[in-house]
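User: Hi! Is it possible to get a structure for several chains at once, not just one? Here's what I have:
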Amino acid sequence: MVSIEKAIQQKEFKDPKNKLIVNLLYTHSYLVTQQNSLFKPYGISPEQYNVLRILKGQKGKPITVSSIQERMLNKMSNASRLVEKLKIKGLLKREECPTDRRQVDISITEEGLELLEDLQIQVDKFNKNFVSLSDEDVTKLNQLLDDLRG
Amino acid sequence: MVSIEKAIQQKEFKDPKNKLIVNLLYTHSYLVTQQNSLFKPYGISPEQYNVLRILKGQKGKPITVSSIQERMLNKMSNASRLVEKLKIKGLLKREECPTDRRQVDISITEEGLELLEDLQIQVDKFNKNFVSLSDEDVTKLNQLLDDLRG
DNA sequence: TACATTTAGATGTATATACATTAATTACAT
DNA sequence: ATGTAATTAATGTATATACATCTAAATGTA
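Assistant: Yes, the chains can be modeled jointly so their relative placement is included. Here is the combined structure:
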């Protein structure tokens, strides 16, 4: 195991709370770097995957850009631009909302669903593999992260 | 407390390991959003702060760009560009390394140190405030994150 | 020495976040 | 009904990551 102290060549932390902030930032970066490798062969980014997952969860029912935004993991994501990228790739379609012409109805295409079919399997595999803690530790870690934001 | 399920409007997760991945991504985003507000008045980004901290830790001894890179929280950071931004702001200086003309000696300026003086206090305050868990829970959380990468 | 290899740093491009602003449309209040 | 406010999505700009490529300089070897 590579300690953070070693990874960033810092002798020690001011206190455990400061270390926790660094630990979160470092662990996130560690995760995301590996996620990128996973997604790369599929031609989409983790954020674009997030959008596709949201669309698939709609089970055919269209959703607006702002609703996608609200459901994203990172609330600062720019759903409008991510949607545009995915549209160019043919993974979703955009239609004018009939009841409100400001809104746009977004839904996943057959191609989008096909891409997810394989990719989701790989993501699940990756997640299972990445998290090699005991069930108990996973639950505890989830709990503590929830508490941290509490 | 806002559960992730509510925050991203997802009914449930496939399993706790999948939830943990999402939890990490979501908690990170939650943290970074608040960090950005903290740094904004100081005119530097969290990443630029990371560079300045590394330089301050050198206690006057210059350091190369690649060494900065190695010590950064996100190993994919582009230290060369971050250094350039900080140089423009007068917070660090770049000097040609006498023993190897490929390398560049970076060191923090008096202005950089002055900026850190106040900012570090605010960062410590923020961290203490952000992490409102018990000492025991902080230690446990640090441990579990370490294990996760183990 | 001469040439190939490696290393350090800079730079180009694509993607994404952060935040402000704009245009079009809808809702609301008078 | 009309003017104002609010909402939706798009867009502009700055910062940063991700990854490839380039140049200059150092290193290593025949």
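The helical segments of chain A are 4-7, 16-39, 46-57, 65-71, 79-88, 110-130, 135-148. Chain A touches chain B through 55 residues (CB under 8 Å).

User: Great, thank you!
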